[in-house]
Design brief:
This protein has 89 residues and is mostly helical. The chain has 4 helices and no strands. The N and C termini lie far apart (52 Å).
Length: 89
């Protein structure tokens, strides 16, 4: 098994989608990597066994394999949005 992070180190936890404050002294919030790894099918132990370079390569490959080829719809004019009852932005 790879280098395990020490127990009680800089933990993360679920941010609930909120921006979390940076950790002191360049520490890393590993929960972000565990969460992204879970989406890609990796266990936390798999993530522990990877270097950050390996994880980045996996993440980039996953993103490329799952990206859509669809074009974004053209933006709508404010008057068209108003006709649909969408206002205020």
């Amino acid at each position: 098994m790879g280098d395990a992070r020490p127990a009680g180190g800089a933990g993360g936890g679920d941010s609930g989608g909120k921006q979390l404050d940076p950790l002191p002294n360049g520490l890393t919030r590993w929960s972000t990597y565990y969460g992204a790894g879970a989406v890609m099918g990796f266990s936390p132990r798999d993530i522990d066994d990877m270097t950050l370079w390996e994880f980045a390569a996996c993440s980039e490959g996953y993103r490329k394999a799952h990206q859509t080829e669809e074009q974004a719809p053209p933006p709508m004019a404010d008057d068209q949005l108003a006709e649909l009852g969408i206002q205020g932005f």
